[in-house]
Amino acid sequence: MAFVDYEKAFDSILHKAVFEALKQHSIEEKYINILKETYDGGTAHVRNESLTRKIKIKKGVRQGDTLSSLMFTAGLEEIFRRMEATGGININGERMNNLRFADDIILFAEKEEDPSKLLNNLNKVGRNDGMKMNKKKTKIMCNEIARKRRRKGIIVDGEQLEEVDEYKYLGRLLTPGNEMAKEIDERVTSAWKRFGQYSRFLRDQKMPMCLKRKIMNTKKTVHFYF
């Protein structure tokens, strides 16, 4: 597996790439034009000792806009569609080579040479749309069999990627053997820390039991399960 990290992903994707992706996703042109109007003409200044001249903004989706995550996802989907479909794992007869949640990306491969092909292909295609892979934060994880077979590390743009034995993805600690002991310990510790923050309320004998249960369910229990 490869855990891909992009440098400032939401701030880097090119506007033209996003609008082209929306077009490829069959979004009506009138809606795309409305979005273009909200993005076209955007400028910024940089203040040092004085203000610089206007700098035209040609990339990045707007923070706080409810449409931004959808626009970014459409742009990223188009990048993956243009990738060469190599590697992947077999799940019920279907090949799957990636798993994505916004800019949190995992690439899957079975053969030794596939991770390098996938990563370099993704890096090349993404760079055309303004996406720059962060090689220092992009990590590789493989099982013991693959580790013994592999003859060399995985290199992207001349930089070797770090191999790790564990990685936290969407709050879940992943390991090659899917061991759960450390993950459970971390969740228990997190839940007790949250309990400590509300302990004075939970120990207050004047507080109704129904409110104590609500605090437990919304604070401590949630931290344990999620």
From TrEMBL:
InterPro entries: DNA/RNA_pol_sf (IPR043502), Rev_trsase/Diguanyl_cyclase (IPR043128), RT_dom (IPR000477)
Superkingdom to which the source organism belongs: Eukaryota
Gene3D superfamilies named in the record: 3.30.70.270
Root EC class: hydrolase
GO MF assignments: RNA-DNA hybrid ribonuclease activity
The EC number(s) this enzyme carries: 3.1.26.4
Transmembrane segments: none
Matching Pfam families: RVT_1
Reverse transcriptase domain mapped to chain residues: 1-174
Annotated family: Belongs to the beta type-B retroviral polymerase family. HERV class-II K(HML-2) pol subfamily.
Protein name: ribonuclease H
Organism per entry: Oryzias latipes
Source lineage: Eukaryota, Metazoa, Chordata, Craniata, Vertebrata
